[in-house]
# Entry
Amino acid sequence: MPHATDTDSILRQNLVDAGCGSEIVQQCMALARKQDQPELIRVLSRHRRTLLDALHQSEKQIDCLDYLIYTLEKQRQ
# Structure
């Protein structure tokens, strides 16, 4: 069975890998220590929405570039 510090390390690394900044990591670690799972889930869900919004913005930018490339290639023909 993992020790509490092992669990803390695993959680911290997972948060870092998920792109959480130091403020969110600290907040989540404190919530985990308090065992406040509902608030922890809210914080994680909010970060997930932020990442998803950034992904959608990147997709829009890629679509714009794809259209520009398509238009330029069509003009060359």
